[in-house]
Amino acid sequence: QYSTGSEIRQKFLNFYAEKGHKILPSASLVPEDPTVLLTIAGMLPFKPIFLGQRQPEFPRATTSQKCIRTNDIENVGRTARHHTFFEMLGNFSFGDYFKQQAIAWGWEISTKVFELPPERLVVSVFEEDDEAFAIWRDEIGVSPQRIKRMGEADNFWKSGPTGPCGPCSEIYYDFHPERGEENIDLEDDTRFIEFYNLVFMQYNRDADGNLTPLQNKNIDTGMGLERMAQILQQVPNNYETDLIFPIIKTAAEIAQIDYHKSDDKTKVSLKVIGDHIRAVVHLIADGVTASNIGRGYIVRRLIRRVVRHGRLIGISGEFTTLVAETAMQLSEAVYPNVRQRESAIKGELQREETRFLETLERGEKLLAEIMEKAKGQISGQDAFVLYDTYGFPLELTQEIAEENGLTVDIKGFETAMEEQRRRSQDAHETIDLTVQGSLDQLAEHIHPTEFLGYTLLTSDAKVE
Ligand code: ALA
């Protein structure tokens, strides 16, 4: 049944309020815990409670928590469901109810409140968790073919290398049941979307990797608001839900294009703008300002990506405050601090955008010089310097080169890019809550000179 994003949020909170949960407001994206960079999950504000360091005021709570994750930033706009900013709906038990009740309510809200047909649902459990398997099969009545046992990478949730963790059970929605019960592969994201994660939070992992039982057995869950909206609004991806699409529409109007008639590349750019501007609006609303370190660096990088993707779709002037306005209109009813911080948000955007556009202009000058010397082709190395130092996407260099009767050595560019990639480390599998961990993950995607940036002329150059 069609539901707006706001209705989904409200239905979730109301359901758990009726089951004795206290509705708490979303915490800030900037965690109280100084060792953590950003709020990456609904459980984060409750971490001290899970660890037994703080007494809970209520045994059960429910929230819609704004979150930011930058570990998957490369996938934003390219897959149907990756975001930097998203809202996580959660129900939490602090040593109160546990596995059986969490599963029963998880199923009830999915099938009765959101009215998802049970035959469209598949669940996963941690491979060693026979108890969860039995609850799904015997108490809920899910057929064993639709209960998948998965390993630690998928079904043992942790917020970082250390801290509270536990086995989990996830509920997936099947967009293509006609493909058959025998072919269930939950990794296939053209068919399945995982929308609800139930974590049986019962261990603490120490720095040596040892698991010790927590004082209490707790429940931590996360339902992706944007994902549930995609399912209920029957749109092809999270970006086309009412939570994000109006922002995309604003950007498309400024670029004088039509999203639905655009090619895939243009759609990716519009989605990146839609995603990142939400993140930027909420980060600045929560007090973060652009800089070259820590959270401020994330804001700066997100703004630059918005500007760069704006240029890719043909926007030449300043536009970020206009798309931010739409993002603010979408969220101000639930997050009033967004409007209260309007002048900070718009001022920051304007400053950063102007500076970055200046950098891009310097790049254009350099490109003109390069083109003057080039004999038919711009070298891959030159194209890479433009990309890496001046934030020039390859497409932009190519376009300008073409206008001047030149080509670009794409292979050479890719080699230079590959070399840089090799210099950074292997991708991390897990989300790391620590400040250093988050920065390390971010650093994987950027050139080391970025951090030397502020001592150089090109201080505000480079964007991915
Ligand atoms: N903390 C769990 C998650 O983020 C619910 O998926």
From TrEMBL:
Cofactor stoichiometry and binding remark: Binds 1 zinc ion per subunit.
First-to-last residue of the parent protein present: 6 to 469 of 876
Free-text domain note: Consists of three domains; the N-terminal catalytic domain, the editing domain and the C-terminal C-Ala domain. The editing domain removes incorrectly charged amino acids, while the C-Ala domain, along with tRNA(Ala), serves as a bridge to cooperatively bring together the editing and aminoacylation centers thus stimulating deacylation of misacylated tRNAs.
Name of the coding gene: alaS
Function as written in the Swiss-Prot or TrEMBL entry: Catalyzes the attachment of alanine to tRNA(Ala) in a two-step reaction: alanine is first activated by ATP to form Ala-AMP and then transferred to the acceptor end of tRNA(Ala). Also edits incorrectly charged Ser-tRNA(Ala) and Gly-tRNA(Ala) via its editing domain.
Cofactor dependence: Zn(2+)
Family to which this protein belongs: Belongs to the class-II aminoacyl-tRNA synthetase family.
EC class (word): ligase
Catalytic activity: tRNA(Ala) + L-alanine + ATP = L-alanyl-tRNA(Ala) + AMP + diphosphate
The organism of origin for this protein: Planktothrix paucivesiculata PCC 9631
Name of the protein in its database record: Alanine--tRNA ligase
GO process terms (BP): alanyl-tRNA aminoacylation
Protein origin, superkingdom: Bacteria
Domain Alanyl-transfer RNA synthetases family profile: 3-464
